[in-house]
Amino acid sequence: MRFPVFIRSESDHTGSDTPLLHSPAELDATIERLVAAGKNRDDKIVVEFCDTADTEGIYQRYGAHVVGSRIFGSNLFFDSHWVVKQPNEAATTPARAAAERRYVATNPHEAALGRICQLTRIDYGRIDYAVVNGKIQVFEINTNPTAPSGRTF
pTM of this prediction? Predict the structure, then answer.
């Protein structure tokens, strides 16, 4: 196992249940605290952290919706925190808002995401991901997603 890691539930989409854990001892202590707090251990998974921050320390999370064989670029969110679940207006500069508009308009990862959907046999959902060194890094595929809402920039 490579550190840092975090713990999350495999059955919900709320993100991490823990901060980043940097050692086996820290992971073991955190698991003990979760169990002592009455958390269900059976649906927890340990996930390796993949640092996707840019040179300014801003993380970006792409969202794409899958409907049948079609992939639609939905949004591109930015945040200074590593868990990016919604737009952070403070981190969304005009240049980043323009990048989101370009992403939605051009859907540049459609073919690669289509291959991922074929491999996972998913034909409906939302893929949350980043691009790391030119490669797609999938965070999760939510098969019961919320439909995208229109946003203005």
Answer: 0.86
